[in-house]
Each structure stands twice: as structure tokens, then as C-alpha cells.
Input
Amino acid sequence: MNGTQVAIRTSDLTRRFGHFVAVDHVTLQVWRGEVFGLLGANGAGKTTLIRMLCGLLQPSAGQATVSGFDVATQPEQVKTRIGYMSQQFSLYDTLTVEENIEFYAGIYGLSWSEIRKREAQILTTMELEPYRRSLTADLPLGFKQRLALGCAILHQPPIVFLDEPTSGVDPRARRSFWDLIHGMAANGTTVVVTTHYMEEAEYCHRISVMDEGKVIALGAPGALKEQLGRKTMHDVFLALVSRGAREQATNREN
Output
């Protein structure tokens, strides 16, 4: 991890839907080569934050830059610098594994020689070679997950956003997927992951714990456990959310 280079920076980033505040004045920095986790329950604001950082959703207030580009005024430049893997894998079930790879490589504007090179790399790295001519619909979920990640990084983006990438995947496949993530980070790629699996926070260099659109804690998993005197990230999360609920109740009473 290169702690001298900022890959993502936000300042009071906010998104409202009518009167509902989905992301509430989020300020954070993510370093180049870092595995950064957005941890929180469903509905905490993780996906909305990711969509703003990907240039897919305009902020209501605040600022954010991704790879040096402003997400509000330069969303198209942002999109050329990132890979994005959504909760629902954007794959075509009626295409084979290699056809999906070639399709997305074409979208990214890669030349035919680049496509062949990157296709071979993805098939090897993601251990998809035995499935290259299999229909995507027939793949086990863990291998669909690998294919979706492979398609997201075909153009070798410096920053990758993974939104709940391991949802519904069995524990062994989840751990294998995290090995791939750490391999990417070791090569300098910045990886931002959203998850509601508390144990996955242990795999991140740093995490941001979100609740009701706010960042309620930020730091390395070990440091947060030590700070709160808890043994697991599950216990850390429960302690943070309970403390937040108590503070909100006190504020309402006052």
C-alpha cells in the first residue's frame, strides 16, 4: 500500500432523495494500493456512496475526487479510471465465459491484440480456463463472481469498486475471492469494497463503518477492536451502532 498517494478523496459528500439523506456529509481519504472496506448493514448508504464515487449519481452537496477527477463535473473521466462490479453481476448468461470477456473488452475499446492478451490473463488469474467455452448461466456462483471481477478490470483501471461482491457466495469462495483482491492491491490497484459480512472487515487495510448514511468509525480493523475493547469486528459494529443509537436518542430528548 502506498500511503503517499491519495486515490479517492471526499469532503462532506452528501446525497439526498427528497427529504431522505442516504449519504450524510462523508469525509474520507483512500490511498493508492489500499483495500478499503465500507462496512454497514443493508441500507446504511454504502451503495449510494459507491455510485457517487463511480460518477453514476450526482452528489447533492460536498465534493469528491477519484484518481484526481471531480465526480460531479468530470464523471466521464472518472469512469475511464475505474472498474465497477455491482451487486448483481453484469454478465450475459447466454454468452460463454470468453464471449463475455470479449464483449466487455470491446466496450472498453481494447484492440483485438489487447483483447487476446487480457483474455488470457483473466482466464489464468481467475482460474477460469477450464470454463472458457461454458455458458455463463452454467457457472457455479463463485466462478460467476470471478468472471464479473475479470470483466470489470479488463482495461486495467487503477481503482476498482466492488459492491457487495461476495453476497450469496459460500465461505470458501469468499475467501478465495479475497485472495484475488489482495493480489490486485499488492500490484498497486486501489480496491474499495462494500460488505455487510463483518468478518470480511478483517481482510481490509482500513474500514469505514457506516450507519444511516454517516461514517461512525474509520480506521484499521485491529485499531478499532483495540479502541473499543472488542475481540471481533461483529462486536465492534454492534458497539458502534448501539452507541450511535443512544446518542441520537439523547439528542432527540435535548
User: Anything to note?
Assistant: The domain at 2-217 is CATH 3.40.50.300 (Rossmann fold). The two ends are 44 Å apart (CA to CA). The beta strands are 2-17, 20-32, 35-39, 61-66, 69-70, 82-85, 159-163, 190-195, 206-211, 214-219.
